[in-house]
Amino acid sequence: MQFLIITGMSGAGKSLCVKYLEDTGYFCVDNLPPSLIPKFAEICLQGQIKMEKIALVMDIRGGSLFFELFPALESLAAYGIAYKILFLESQDNVLIKRFKESRRMHPLSPEGRISDGITEERRLLQAVKEKAHYIIDTSNLTPRQLKQEITNLFIEGKPFSGLIINVISFGFKYGVPIDCDLVFDVRFIPNPYYIDTLKPLTGNDKKVSNYVMSFHESTVFLSKLVDMFDFLIPNYIKEGKNQLVIGIGCTGGKHRSVTIANRLYEILKAKNSSVVLEHRDIEKDNRRARNESS
Known about the structure:
Helix content is 44%, strand content 18%.
């Protein structure tokens, strides 16, 4: 019997996580008071409920009851039941945006500022976060990407390094993504934009990709980039970093950056299970051209 405790910041994606786990056979209970964990475990052990994989969502919505979590988890150990804690995290600005879009109030600031509730929630959850077996930062994850992370961890049983790597291609003329940890400028590579047959295509097209990688500068740059990440990633994991956002930029974010980001993603994915790829600006030039012609 496996118990998974799902907790973390309000708005970080716990509801989505439960949905994905239910779809794969987990028995999920949302907002169960921690004090009821011993009784729930006893019922499971007595065979009154036939299940092997159980996920319990517990967070600050439970008020003061939430702080009974650690004593309740000790009772699981007394029953001989193993458990893991999954903590879902997200950046403050992302959480505020999600609350505003959903028009929901933060549970700790129903009549005040969302930011105040987030600050207080971080303080209250710090002890739980420190004991978590898995921490997933959902700031830059789409629902599909979060689903893949959950699948990797709890369905396919892939190893979790604790670090989610986001590789993002972008165009400098549209601005550098504000959440990038590292930014690499590939505008030194010859630009397919000036070749008529390649201009309407993107780095996802083989003709553009082959053109970009046909230059010595491209292969050397990619080789040095991979060598650097072979050094950095283990040290980031050792330091406890849980998310790394790598920006690859060219002028418009359509050709060179997409090609290099794709190649980097493929290499990193072969070495790390938690790698996410995004092409932020790949269609913006096309949309702009359509708007100008209409």
